[in-house]
Write a structure and sequence with these properties.
single chain; globular; alpha+beta; six-stranded mixed β-sheet; about 20% strand; seven-stranded mixed β-sheet; about 550 residues
């Protein structure tokens, strides 16, 4: 693969907006991939792997140069002073090295700002995980790429075998450009640029005298654009949750993993998609959380990115638009919620256009960073953001160490929580980054998340135990050194609480109607909104072909 040349490239409107939002912590948008490995990789090989990746994806060697005057968008410029050693760090967890400790370490790292004078990424090798394992935390500014683009960039870093050897590509050509240089360049091109803008904006009377049908189409396009603008920035699709209204600068993560086969089976059982199953599980978790605290709600406002990326587009930059929907939380039946989610997503997608996101972003980049942050706080009427990112179905290796799990941590720009589901090797790794001021009972919320996904997985487990075996929603905070004994008692607080409160586990349903009856049967008992107790996973990951990008 030939390296991308590091020629100055203008940030597109969405990239520019994300970069500008970094001026204030409320609007900061850094994303993080948490790759857990079976052992500690050799540091020299890690350095070599990143050297190769930065040559394959020149954006990782580029910094943002902004003009001194507001004459245009900033540029991506190849950094002549690129220093790989600055971007790579090492640390070790104190004993015992649990996943909970790792997640608590990721929170502050994800919130810390990146150096805006350098390429916008950092990588930290974390040693000391239980069982001799390690983790690589790859932190990138959202202006660099989106979720699917990030997966492609990971492909340049990771190998298909432990002893893979790949040639080292040439170094992309850097560009020595300062903010002053860019400003002078823009000033020289200002007359021509103004002429081009005037030409684009000048009305054509001949076009205005066109057919009535064309005018009608123009009016329809305008009405759809206004409707999308109102949908994205105006009144939320439903009332925000009264429990999730507080905001702070603190963050906490909860993570778990579920079998992809069960999520697919659940989607098939309800006539939806894997993304519908994912959103239904989140809705079930929030339903339980609100019911447990005595504040039931019918729905919560949620935002979901829809990828616009085509297969031949480069990984760099963001190619997505956002839609909002009322995430149903009233029905105890996961299949019914899935069908409601499917209908809501179809309606939201119909109102989304590729161009409107860019137009809104272009307008908002003209605002000062402090004002953007204030708007993010004042208009935080969305409780949940949820992203679904498909990954590889085959084992991947970093510097000889096998990657056993990949979690995604997304930003929380003024919302209560950001959920990311990444699929890898037949497992779905779900990570929710939330504001503790919004979700005040973290232990309860974690249990509700496990149960919400467990009930959806149950839909995808027909009689006989396949696909996927026993319905599972395993907390990622547990150690996976070896398959647990079937005689061992559940050890987590969430499992104990479920076992203590829930009614006896019903037999695995073959249809959504059986799951509904099982759920209704438990309503009379204390803790009625519980699903079947969460059980540890014992299945091994299967080798799957790389899936096509799933559009929500």
């Amino acid at each position: 693969m030939a390296p991308q040349m590091a020629n100055p490239q203008e940030l597109n409107p969405l990239d520019h907006l994300l970069f500008k939002g970094d001026e204030h912590v409320v609007a900061r948008s850094t994303i993080m991939a948490i790759m857990v490995m079976d052992r500690v990789p050799e540091w020299a090989r890690v350095v070599t792997a990143f050297e190769r990746a930065t040559r394959l994806h020149a954006r990782l060697r580029e910094r943002v140069v902004s003009p001194l005057l507001p004459l245009g968008a900033p540029r991506w410029v190849g950094d002549p002073d690129f220093d790989l050693d600055y971007h790579l760090r090492r640390m070790a967890l104190p004993g015992p090295g649990t996943m909970r400790q790792l997640l608590d370490t990721c929170g502050p790292l994800a919130l810390a700002p990146l150096d805006r004078l350098r390429p916008l990424w950092e990588a930290t090798l974390v040693e000391g995980l239980q069982g001799g394992r390690a983790a690589m935390l790859l932190k990138t500014h959202h202006a660099v790429t989106d979720g699917l683009g990030g997966v492609e960039m990971l492909g340049a870093l990771l190998d298909l075998s432990a002893d893979a050897e790949r040639p080292m590509p040439p170094v992309p050509v850097p560009v020595d450009m300062t903010p002053g240089d860019l400003t002078k360049q823009m000033l020289r091109g200002l007359p021509a640029g103004m002429a081009r803008s005037a030409e684009r904006l000048a009305p054509s009377w001949r076009d205005l005298a066109g057919s009535v049908g064309r005018s009608g189409r123009m009016a329809g396009d305008a009405m759809r654009s206004l409707a999308e603008l109102r949908s994205m920035l105006g009144t939320p699709p439903c009332e925000p949750s009264p429990l999730l209204r507080q905001r702070s600068l603190r963050r906490r993560m909860v993570a778990l993993e579920v079998p992809l086969a069960q999520m697919r089976g659940a989607a098939k059982a309800a006539g939806g998609t894997v993304n519908d199953a994912y959103l239904s599980a989140l809705g079930g978790a929030l339903r339980r959380y609100h019911d447990e605290l005595g504040v039931p709600v019918a729905a919560v406002p949620a935002a979901v990115p829809v990828s616009l990326r085509q297969g031949d587009e480069p990984a760099a930059s963001n190619q997505w638009t956002g839609v909002r929907l009322a995430l149903p939380t009233d029905s105890p039946d996961p299949a019914e919620r899935m069908r409601a989610v499917h209908a809501a997503m179809a309606e939201a997608r119909d109102g989304a256009s590729n161009s409107m996101m860019g137009a809104i972003s272009s307008l908002m980049t003209k605002l000062p960073g402090a004002l953007l942050a204030e708007m993010a706080s004042a208009t935080a009427t969305t409780d949940v953001q949820a992203s679904n990112i498909p990954g590889a179905g085959v084992p991947l290796f970093l510097a000889g160490a096998e990657v056993t799990a990949i979690h995604g941590c997304g930003p929380v720009p003024g919302q209560a929580m950001m959920a990311v589901m990444m699929s890898y090797r037949g497992r779905c790794f779900v990570t929710i980054n939330y504001d503790p001021a919004s979700v005040t009972d973290g232990e309860l919320f974690e249990r509700c998340v496990q149960e919400g996904f467990a009930e959806v997985c149950a839909l995808g487990t027909p009689a006989g135990g396949t696909p996927g075996g026993t319905p599972t929603a395993q907390p990622a905070t547990t150690s996976r050194k070896a398959a647990p004994s079937t005689k061992a008692a559940p050890s987590t607080k969430a499992t104990k609480a479920t076992t203590r409160k829930a009614a006896p586990t019903p037999t695995t349903p073959t249809k959504a109607t059986k799951a509904t009856k099982a759920t209704k049967a438990t309503k009379g008992a204390k803790g009625a909104k519980k699903a079947a107790p969460v059980t540890p996973a014992t299945t091994t990951a299967t080798r799957l072909r790389r899936t096509n990008p799933r559009k929500p």
